[in-house]
Design brief:
Elements: H1 2-21, H2 30-62, H3 79-112, E1 119-126, E2 129-133, E3 139-140, E4 152-155, E5 160-166, E6 171-175, E7 180-184, E8 190-194, E9 200-206, E10 218-224, H4 226-239
Parallel strand pairs: 1-5, 4-10
Antiparallel strand pairs: 1-2, 2-3, 5-8, 6-7, 6-9, 9-10
Helix pairs in contact: 2-3
The structure holds copper (II) ion.
Residues 125, 128, 171, 206, 208, 210, 214, 217 line the site of copper (II) ion.
Length: 240
């Protein structure tokens, strides 16, 4: 019994070593995986749509009425033929649906698994602005009326994870440029992560109706080089 326990635990002891020795996993950009799935859905819809539209036009012409009082008749099918006509197409479409659903779960797994070295920023939703809090305590925001404030600053090349909550009602943090969106709720912490791959400015908008100024609840998202980001954060820290 003891020997067996030892034997069982050997792979358990070796495994962490193997995992640690492996090179750090390459980060899969959620934008790439999302776009890939989206393109597949579009191709799928286009191919099926084309086939069905072509068949519909063909049959409309082929079986059109050639005289005003003509009465058509359906083909006589055996019970087996009827079942086959119902089940075979149904299974083909279900197979395609399951294929796309499985791909969707793969993308979802990428969205939910935050990379180990992700940079964490806390986000709090308020009616009607966001507050961003960086690891060194610096906070930023953005005012829609005066257009003042840094909004969300992130370093290029580092995955960023946002830990989010709300002070009042339900908001939703939507960044279409990074293909992410997640609700923010009072009393709960939700998260999203994304990978800024290039220097650019995009926008975050609130995507859950949250009151009269919901439409004004937006802020710039600025992805800047790491050195510039660090310098900005340092300066911000020393001036506040
Ligand atoms: Cu909102």
């Amino acid at each position: 019994m003891k020997g067996r326990l030892v034997a069982l635990s050997i792979p358990g002891m070796l495994l962490p070593g193997v995992v640690m020795a492996a090179a750090p996993a390459k980060i899969v950009d959620p934008v790439t995986s999302w776009n890939h799935l989206w393109n597949e859905v579009l191709i799928d819809l286009f191919l099926m749509g084309t086939v069905f539209a072509a068949l519909a036009v063909y049959w409309l012409i082929k079986y059109r009425a050639t005289s005003p009082d003509q009465v058509g008749s359906g083909p006589k099918l055996s019970r087996a033929q009827s079942w086959a006509w119902a089940m075979v197409p149904a299974f083909i479409f279900m197979a395609d649906d399951f294929f796309l659903a499985a791909k969707g779960w793969t993308v979802w797994n990428i969205y939910r698994k935050v990379p180990d070295n992700a940079y964490e920023i806390k986000v709090t939703g308020n009616m009607w602005y966001w507050q961003f809090e960086y690891p060194n305590g610096v906070t930023t925001t953005y005012a829609y009326d005066t257009k003042e404030g840094d909004g969300l600053m992130v370093p290029v090349g580092t995955p960023v994870v946002l830990r989010m909550t709300s002070n009042d009602v339900i908001h939703s943090f939507g960044m279409s440029a990074y293909r992410v969106k997640e609700d923010m709720m009072p009393g709960r912490v939700t998260y999203i992560w994304f990978l800024p791959t290039e220097e650019k400015q995009s926008w975050v908008t609130c995507t859950e109706f949250c009151g009269v100024l919901h439409a004004q609840m937006y802020a710039p998202v600025k992805a800047v080089p790491r050195a510039q980001f660090d310098a900005w954060l340092q300066k911000k820290k020393s001036t506040t």
